[in-house]
């Protein structure tokens, strides 16, 4: 008698194996939607039984996956609505470059919880804006580089989170701005190589740069400002560390903290306005090189002009500098006969020529805080300038365009009118919010007595009731009367 066979859910093939495996066997397979890998053998329509977000809800991961399947190393993103992703996007291996499309005047926006660069992977991001997705885990950085990975950031912006480098990783940052991180802006531990050039790291809750036992650290022409802790912190068994042409200002603790056992090469750096001091720690710091020397190029604030102008240091004094600056004194038009030229312009209805600026080279003595490095420091006026309040309150769509990654005045003029209108509306809203922030929740009565915002609505009706009613004016039109003759 033949022994009964165990039934398996689903149809049976000729060899006796089940054609449709049970649910338990399906759940054991790792879904392809959880990782962007170099291997593209799994189709995009594979089942997703574990509840991971579908690829339709992960457009950025799908773009990378399609590029990997097509064996492409370059992904170009257009400027459109923000490209979002539900979970962190890992790059496990291979080389990939993601950049804005050629001719993009503004960088594409990526909103996602983060990007993970795995070992043996190389990732290059150029002219992109990365924002931490709302509701994401605040403990994770926006970009994380694992051991053996390499990251390159050029002309990028990181908002809401920072960059973290694991032991054995390497990174190169160029003209990148990092702001609003809940921890350190850039954190590197036992990193092989870290190069930061012409970058700005500000408004972070931790240090702007925290480098621990980095074998090769090079920081040049960078700005570290308005961070809650130190502007830059170097500790551990640091190897070759160098800072040159950097500005560390208005940080919550020290501008630079060098821990014991560390040695930092210091050349032409500016430290000003840090809360606890300019330099802290027991490490070795070469302070022989001053920020400015005779013959160095610099930027000087001219109060009567109201802007920073390029200059050259002639002499360094105790609390002042003698500089040679190019000051714009006025504008004029080189016309031989002004009356004849004006009549010709009226007859032909031509546009008058643009006045050419007149530049005069002057020797000016300015205070120490009116001089800054040419490639770093903030653009705000000094604290004693009368232009400071106007600078803080001014509404400028062009400045917002530059903060969002715009490429200068030519790009602003060539910007699409709808995009320019959006930026102008956003700039007006920011300016209005700044003006209303100090007076929020308060209102002033007739005699200057302040009261709550809930009572402000009753102020005007109450004044209207107490007002003396004037008699109505008589009409100027006389009524018709009948006269008997």
From TrEMBL:
<dbReference type="InterPro" id="IPR012334">
    <property type="entry name" value="Pectin_lyas_fold"/>
</dbReference>
<dbReference type="Pfam" id="PF13229">
    <property type="entry name" value="Beta_helix"/>
</dbReference>
<dbReference type="InterPro" id="IPR039448">
    <property type="entry name" value="Beta_helix"/>
</dbReference>
<feature type="compositionally biased region" description="Basic and acidic residues">
    <location>
        <begin position="430"/>
        <end position="442"/>
    </location>
</feature>
<feature type="compositionally biased region" description="Basic residues">
    <location>
        <begin position="1"/>
        <end position="11"/>
    </location>
</feature>
<feature type="region of interest" description="Disordered">
    <location>
        <begin position="1"/>
        <end position="32"/>
    </location>
</feature>
<feature type="region of interest" description="Disordered">
    <location>
        <begin position="427"/>
        <end position="485"/>
    </location>
</feature>
<protein>
    <recommendedName>
        <fullName>Right handed beta helix domain-containing protein</fullName>
    </recommendedName>
</protein>
<dbReference type="InterPro" id="IPR006626">
    <property type="entry name" value="PbH1"/>
</dbReference>
<feature type="domain" description="Right handed beta helix">
    <location>
        <begin position="155"/>
        <end position="269"/>
    </location>
</feature>
<dbReference type="InterPro" id="IPR011050">
    <property type="entry name" value="Pectin_lyase_fold/virulence"/>
</dbReference>
